[in-house]
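In the previous lecture we treated proteins in isolation. Real proteins rarely work alone, and many bind small molecules. This record shows how such a complex is specified: first the sequence, then the SMILES for calcium ion.
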Amino acid sequence: MKKLFKTIAAAAFFIAPAANATTFAVDFDFRAPGGAVDEAFFSVMGVDLTVRAGTFEPRSTVRIGDRDVFQSTAGLGVLGPDEERPARGDEVPDSTNVDGRRANDVLVFEFSQRVRLNSASFTFVDSDDEFRFFQDVDGFGQLIGFGGNTPVVGGQIPIPGSQVFAFTPGLFDSALFGIGALQGNDDFRVAGFNVTALPEPSTWLMMILGFGLTGLVLQRRRRLAAA
Ligand SMILES: [Ca+2]
Ligand SMILES: [Ca+2]
Ligand SMILES: [Ca+2]
Ligand SMILES: [Ca+2]
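The predicted 3D structure, ligand included, written as tokens:
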């Protein structure tokens, strides 16, 4: 039995670098015609992504589903019933973008597996555009609002002039993210994501157990062959 554990430990040791090699970067490009839809669906290299739209209040959780995702060649925005009400006075109307006018728009990105969020790219970016970032931190499906490249609850993240925001590596591992707009002058589209697909913890366990069992079978065969 001791030998079995040694085999499993050895297998785990050898799998670690191999599993790292199997993680791969995936580029999601959201820029395509589509119009207003309940959900937008993307699938790249076996990683599936469903995008939904909703709203949020600065100090409460995200409400998903009372808005449409608006897709065009500029990327993804949010369309809601507010857009149908004409602007009053000098009020700037809500747009098909992710915007912070009237209701605060948010796009919710749900992946089929855990990923590392590397970067997000935007369009319609002006110097006053900031985004509010949400992440399901503990895997229980609740989106928590963060600001800044290091998580600070409630902060606003300025969108760089390059239109690409790079997330600090390793801090943003999840299957569920959100990007929203809080201020009236925040108005943009989300054009794409670059993520790294992460191996599931259960997959790791299965692989290690699988290698352990293989080792056990090989040992028995060797013993039988020697006898
Ligand atoms: Ca909008
Ligand atoms: Ca809005
Ligand atoms: Ca702003
Ligand atoms: Ca803008």
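Summary for your notes: Residues 24-198 form one domain. Residues 124-126, 129, 187-188 surround calcium ion (ligand 4) (CB under 6 Å).
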